[in-house]
Amino acid sequence: MAEKRSSGATFENIMKDMKAGKFSPVYLLMGEEPYFIDKISDYISDNAIKPEERDFNQVTLYGLDTTPSQIMDAAHAAPMMSEHQVIIVREAQLLKGIEQLEKYLKSPIASTILVICYKKESPKSSKGWIGEAERNGVLFESKKMRDYQLPGFINGYLKTKGVTIEEKACMMIAESIGTDLSRVVTELDKLFLTLPKGETRIVPQFVEEQIGISKDFNVFELRDAIVKKDVVNANRIVKYFDNNPKAGNLHSIVPQLFGFFQNLMLAFYCPNRQNQDELATWLGLRGGWAARDYIAAMKGYNAMKTMQIIQKLRTIAAKSNGLDNRSASEHELMQEMIYFILH
């Protein structure tokens, strides 16, 4: 049945309600992360009404090719031999005059499930049509996932499939692929489907074999060498990256190291920074195990050096984009960065 639902809902709560057969007359799905928007809209498309009812009661419109009047006319139509009809508006950020939907959203039709997919950016105003969508339906903001949230997402996704993953293997995927969730899920599905029968745990060697991420030469191992101040291994990894650019480059490495040292700077201000659990809470990490590297790094780097490294990483990032850099290659910039961090 379609009923008014609470606004500002989480992805998990929305999916839980829909799986229980509770659908809202309006869904405004907006934000920079398309993965969750697609998951919700696809579930509605596949499950809100029966397959045999879809020919006459389900339509997909695109913002660039439609108008608010056409959307409202379709939403006001009565379903044919079905309790509900489904209207999905994709790429709604391209819909001209979208604010005109306010009139319909003030009093949505109970027999219509209207899904508005507004990707890439969230509308700035919380008034008008957005406010009405929030009052009378489900408002969901799909925010871009941050690097530190990715391991949790990977573990959670695999858990739904009855599979676990070693910490190192998880970090290899997170730091190699980044926060492109659609790509992350594609690679996780590949691992799940190729996992030997009876196996329920993913290990680093399996990730290396199936995805092509080296278990010895990756951003995770580089960060580990930096934490331990292992000059020899750090330079071995940098040399490997120079010969295998897909394994690691400045544009993927600098943000990872910047995030690490930025957190390390915050760690120095933690009242009980030698306690894993308290430091993890202070930094907003998933658990005490995630704080181990920061505790180890504080033994080799003081706050002043950490601040200097953060500034150096900013400089390297600018140079890698051509600012104040006339001749240094990416490999030279990588060497400059690693030397500065470790000495």
**Unreliable stretches covering 5 or more consecutive residues:** 1-7
Assembly form of the protein? single chain
Tell me which CATH architecture of the largest domain applies here: 3-Layer(aba) Sandwich
Distance between the termini: 65 Å
* CA-based gyration radius: 24 Å
CATH homology superfamily of the largest domain? P-loop containing nucleotide triphosphate hydrolases
Determine the structural class based on helices, strands and strand pairing.
alpha/beta
Structural shape: elongated
Largest sheet composition: 5 strands, parallel
Assign the CATH topology of the largest domain: Rossmann fold
Number of strands: 7
CATH class of the largest domain: Alpha Beta
Number of helices: 17
Protein name: DNA polymerase III subunit delta
EC number: 2.7.7.7
Keywords: Nucleotidyltransferase, Transferase
Organism: Palleniella muris
Brief description of this entry?
This is DNA polymerase III subunit delta. The protein is an alpha/beta fold.
What does the model show?
The strands form two sheets. The chain has a five-stranded parallel beta sheet with strand order 2-3-4-1-5, sandwiched between helices. It has a two-stranded parallel ribbon with strand order 6-7. It is α/β, with parallel strands linked by helices. The protein has 17 helices and seven strands. The protein folds into three domains: 11-141, P-loop containing nucleotide triphosphate hydrolases (Rossmann fold), CATH 3.40.50; 145-215, Helicase, Ruva Protein, domain 3 (Orthogonal Bundle); 216-343, Up-down Bundle (Zinc Finger, Delta Prime, domain 3), CATH 1.20.272. It is an enzyme of class 2 (transferase). This is DNA polymerase III subunit delta. Keywords: Nucleotidyltransferase, Transferase. Its EC number is 2.7.7.7.
